[in-house]
Amino acid sequence: MAIYIGEIIVIAVIALCLAVPSGLATAYYSSAWLLALFNCAVTNFDYSERALLLTLAGGLLIPIASALLPIYRSVAMPVRVALASYGLGADYATPGVPSKVERFISQRLPTPYALVLIPLLHKKAKCLSAQLVLILTGIMFIVIMSLA
Questions:
Q1: Within a 13 Å sphere around the CA of 148, how many CA atoms are in the beta-carbon half?
Q2: Up-side HSE of residue 84: CA atoms within 13 Å toward CB?
Q3: Could you list the residue ranges that cross the membrane (predicted)?
Q4: Whole-angstrom Cα distance, residue 42 to residue 14?
């Protein structure tokens, strides 16, 4: 179990190393752009240390907290049960439209794209939440760009 939590911590630290500097740079350039609309110059850029600490804490604690239950379930599951229900002998597809769409995706798209899209067909909640995030992100982008 410690290996999985260690892996989550490493991935979270890598994500924070990428997200925090790019977030600060995006905040600086977007604030400079918005202030330029009002003919104001940006002389210096200050950030909230509290917000930075909360970002770091959330970036480390939220992935660990969200992964504890799946890790606990997978560690408690015997290998035989895992292979029978999830692995080599598992049959995910139900006959009909999902299997045809899955076959179409696996034949027409490169393997990395197929590996991402096919599990979304089996997990409807994940597919719905991914679509919701993409739609809301697109709406926010359009609203922000229309302010220019």
A1: 8
A2: 5
A3: 51-72, 127-147
A4: 30
